[in-house]
Amino acid sequence: MRFLALIFSLTTGVSAFAQEDFNVAKINLSLSDQANAVVRISETSWEILSKSEAKRRERTVVTILNEQGEDEHAQLYVQYDKFTKIADISGNLYDATGKLVKKLRNADIEDYGYGIAGDDITDARIKVAGFGKKAYAYPYTIEYSYESRNRNMMFYPRWMPASDTETAVESAVYLIKTPAGFNFRYKEYNGAAAAGKSKDKDGADLYLWKLENRPAGNRRDSYPLPVMEASPMVLTAPAELELQEYKGNFNSWQDLSKFYYTLNAGRDVLPASTQAEIKNLVSNAKSDREKILLIYKWMQARSRYVSIQLGIGGWQTIDATAVANKGYGDCKGLTNLTLAALRYAGVTCYAALIRAGEEARIKADFPSSQFNHVIACAIAAKDTIWLECTSQTTPANFMGTFTGGRPALIVMPEGGKLVMTPDYKEHHNVRTRRTDIKLDANGDGQLSVQTSYTGLRQESRKSIMHSGNKDEQKKWLVNQINLPSLDLERFELSDGNGAEPSVIEKLSIKVRNCATKSGTRLFIKPNILSTYYELPGITERTTDFYLPPADYDFTDLDSVSYIIPDGFKPESTMPSATITSIFGSMESSAVYTKNTLLCARKLILKGGRYPASEYANWIAFLKKVRKADRAQAVFIEKVD
Q1: Is the pLDDT of residue 41 over 80?
Q2: Which of 73, 139, 184, 408 could form a disulfide with 354 if both were Cys (CB 3.0 to 4.6 A apart)?
Q3: Which pTM value belongs to this model?
Q4: C-alpha dihedral sign at 451, 455, 461, 462
């Protein structure tokens, strides 16, 4: 009966759980123990009316246990545009006993343009509903529901009721209703149960997925798997679709590529003035690579990013003539302008769809609209050069944490395919630092530091260098330095001159207690600027663990020179260490000669996904590295 009532509720919009008890005491402790929030009920209904239209209904009841849960779940966000109409947003708030405290009012629902900047041009909008922050004692429960009518069938809903590792789920269902015999595509991931199939009373096909009593991940886990690899999930997509006058199918990546190409065909014609500009720009270029670099710098210098989402424009580019004349565009428009210029110069090139964002990934085995960004792919001889056309500062062929190391769909009229963008491993992400320190007899030090950052290591400094003023840069740098009682007297950030993107950082720092003075002894840390990795709270595990490559794929090269004050001599053997592991390696040494302590350190880490059986080895490796980094050289005052 519960199953039948559920189907009735999802197909009619009438809740089967109107009498549900939302008393927090009813939550099983196995669910709430490590959770910031518990999804009590999640109901998603996707009713496909045709190849061009569908209706969606959502109802979610979430018990919020603390501030982190409130940040994640307290508000409802619903996007809409020319192709999506929203109706019947409603909400209730219940106290810890399940008593209704407040109903959502129209005044509690705000409506915003979906752009991120003041000059964005968009008819895409977002409704934000909420009851206010920190106005109710934890725990409390929020219920939201809404309906929408959708005429953009490029995107079917993705079902992932446990959307983060710190949210538990009591009950969640996903129902798809289609006309009898209607074909669409779906795939379950990460242990999601297979769909239950049945017929509605009108002969329609029903597909139902359920998830019950799924606990949150351990809050103390320092290395959880990405949600896309750990949380039960169902991806759905059209087999065939219609969007205005455009028709296509997503049965393969080649089909999706062809659809996007058709959507944007004929929009890469440059105005005569721009053609002349490009012809003059590349007139002396001796290779396609040189043409690509010249055109990319030209585009960066003459354009700026503005989000343009008008009508079908969320997926169809503004034509190259308009972008060239106006000097601005979104990722589609700027990429299209760059490609148009490259093609005019005789360079083979393509648009590439990608899922942008740090740690963002797609499921490559399920062709569907999983992308949120467009970049350019240019071919020079046998080399591929990737171009991020929305940035005025990113070097050519540098994808970084935003778009690097992931599949991109090359857009072609026929035969489009997924290819990998450049990845950045430990030998790319290098920090090379030289530190010269002059100590006085009290242990205070004057530091002169020069550091080169390459690969992903230079991204944050490049960002603050181009976006922050001097005061903001100084404040940011001080927060990065792992030293107490410091005075950053001078600093300089500049671009490196190598083939790969890099940033050169120069610091002059005065540090109190740079070495620790105790009686007649000076205790000196050879690796004074090293950042120590904290030991995790969990010492044993039964699941795989994940070291995000953006944080754990790197090489550190340190050279430190201490000028020891007159009147001191070594009391102990100089520290050294050699450590090897599947997770990386470390070598460190210290040598004293002619009043100078010379220290060297090389640390290599390798991120990625590792099996639970290697967790003890990871902890052991961390402990050895920490011990080596904390080793000290001891000097004592000479006795005449």
Answers
A1: yes
A2: 408
A3: 0.89
A4: positive
